[in-house]
Specification:
This protein is of the alpha/beta class and about 270 residues long. The chain has nine helices and eight strands.
Length: about 270
């Protein structure tokens, strides 16, 4: 049994890169997707009003749904992976949340990925973790007002990023819950990152399926489209679905050819 097409999400930050980002929602629609997601598409945490409008208009004009959006993650090309745990950037993050709320209200997006942030020289891990928990707690008004969920995920490829396997993410979610936070939080299960970091994905599904609120997939090695590597993505999705998961499955892969040509996997996961 393959995943229903209406559950598949095109990540327009890593797919359709042949086009300007403003044209990617329409390209996703032309290729049969009704839902998309983006990493933070702007260079700044607080972009201009015209940039925000351009972004939201590109989505509404394409007739697709924004199913997921990353919070600002810093300078990604330079290796940054989020600012949630950075003590010196709390004000920046707080101001940024207001922009995210504006986009959420304009698009109806309700799932938001908060990259945790790399470990920093000059700040202790304990202080960074306290900062992350404070920032998560302060998102309660945002999630409760919008019926939204903030997600945390493991990430591979950056040694300084501290959340590498499912247990790392669950530990943060549990700490937030035990601290009394009312922010709605969930586990973003990125099968590629989990496998690349040596986690046992079937075991992760067995232990934490009830914590999963969103799934992202790419094949390995190479982070290409399904079928370009050796990961049993179809069986992992089926195993998660068997636990009652009925959420989205996002395609966060780097096409080994053009994006449109890479869709030959359809019907296999």
């Amino acid at each position: 049994m393959t995943t229903s097409p209406d559950r598949l999400v095109a990540n327009c930050s890593i797919l359709f890169t042949e086009l300007p980002w403003t044209e990617r929602p329409a390209a996703a629609a032309r290729n049969g997707f009704s839902a998309i997601e983006f990493w933070w598409p702007f260079a700044a945490a607080v972009p201009s009003s015209s940039e925000i409008t351009q972004f939201t208009d590109s989505i509404s004009n394409a007739g697709v749904r924004l199913a997921g959006l990353n919070f600002f993650a810093g300078d990604m090309p330079a290796g940054e992976r989020g600012v949630l745990s950075h003590p010196a950037r709390v004000t920046e993050f707080t101001e940024h949340v207001g922009v995210v709320e504006q986009i959420a209200r304009a698009t109806g997006c309700r799932f938001f990925n908060a990259l945790y942030g790399n470990r920093l020289d000059g700040d202790t891990p304990e202080r960074q973790d306290e900062t992350a928990l404070e920032n998560l707690a302060n998102l309660a008004t945002f999630t409760n007002a919008l019926d939204a969920t903030v997600m945390l995920e493991p990430v591979s490829g950056v040694e300084a990023y501290p959340l590498k396997v499912a247990d790392d993410v669950i530990a943060v979610l549990d700490c937030a819950s035990k601290s009394g936070s009312t922010t709605r939080l969930g586990f973003l299960a990125d099968f590629y990152h989990l496998d690349t970091n040596g986690d046992d994905v079937p075991s992760v599904i067995e232990r934490y399926a009830d914590r999963v609120v969103h799934v992202q997939v790419a094949d390995s090695p190479g982070r290409g489209e399904p079928g370009s590597g050796t990961l049993p993505l179809a069986s992992w999705i089926a195993a998660l679905d068997a636990t009652g998961y009925d959420g989205m499955v996002a395609l966060e892969y780097k096409p080994t050819t053009t994006t449109e040509e890479s869709f030959s996997w359809r019907g296999t996961i």
